[in-house]
Amino acid sequence: MANFYIDKSDITENTATITGEEAQHISRVLRMKKGDEVTLCDGEGNFYEAVLEEFSEKTVTAAIRSSREAETEPETKITIFQGVPKNPKLETIVQKATEIGVVRIVPVNTVRAVAKLDKSAKVDRLRKIAKEAAKQSKRGIIPYVNDAVSFKEAVKMASEADLALIPYEEEREVSLKKALSGKKPKTVAVMIGPEGGFDKDEINLAKENGITSVTLGKRILRTETAPLAVSAAILYELGEME
């Protein structure tokens, strides 16, 4: 059954009003008609089974028959703070992190980053990618892609999580598994370096603010691989992939 996202404010009692690109996709691309069944998601963790009723130039109205909470959202909320890589790596990270179950991606302009992200148009494209990936993977929410922030701002944001981690190739003592052992964090922040890795001063600043440096083993992962491997490992270790 086709799956579409709407705003919760577009639901009135048992009626949903679908607008924008989703309405166009229903009427012009899929050429659906009155009586067709669809699944709607409000982006806040709720799904609605509905039947299409009315079509206008810019909107589609559907009658809601039932609702349920999404079963696809992990209890552990992971935010990725990603050092900005070259295009199109960030697009891949957003897409795949959404599929895995990450709830937020924050691009970070770091010292060694070759690329910078400072144009709202690029962020808008990343948000669209997150929406499409959420739809494909039946997510109950659309992960939020933040505007780019400085490393200092990222550290402040990450330190507010129940558990904040920064994979670092020079870490020798604390593994990811060890950092997670015995913990049941509701929120986890993961800071990932760009192609050139983190500057030593950045690592020190992170540690000073309570962010745990971890090793991912003997192999060095690419910047587009690390956030996906770490996110999947965290969810697995915390029992979120059963």
Write up what this structure looks like:
- The protein is an alpha/beta fold.
- The protein folds into 2 domains: 67 residues, Ribosomal Protein L25, Chain P (Beta Barrel); 161 residues, Alpha/beta knot (3-Layer(aba) Sandwich), CATH 3.40.1280.10.
- Helices cover 30% and strands 27% of the residues.
- Helix 2 runs parallel beside helix 3 and helix 2 packs parallel to helix 7.
- The two termini are 25 Å apart.
Keywords:
elongated, Ribosomal Protein L25, Chain P, alpha/beta, 7-stranded parallel sheet, 6-stranded mixed sheet, single chain
Number of helices: 7
The name of the CATH architecture of the largest domain is 3-Layer(aba) Sandwich
CATH superfamily of the largest domain: SPOUT methyltransferase, trefoil knot domain
CATH level 1 class label of the largest domain = Alpha Beta
**Fraction of residues in helix:** 25-40%
Radius of gyration: 20 Å
Can you write the helix and strand succession as a string? EEEHEEEEHEHEEHEHEHEH
Structural class: alpha/beta
Q: What distance lies between the first and last C-alpha atoms, to the nearest angstrom? A: 25 Å
CATH topology of the largest domain, by name, is Alpha/beta knot
What percent of residues are in strands? 25-35%
Give the rounded overall mean pLDDT: 94
C-alpha geometry: elongated
> How many structural domains does the protein architecture include?
2
E-strand count: 13
Low-confidence stretches: none
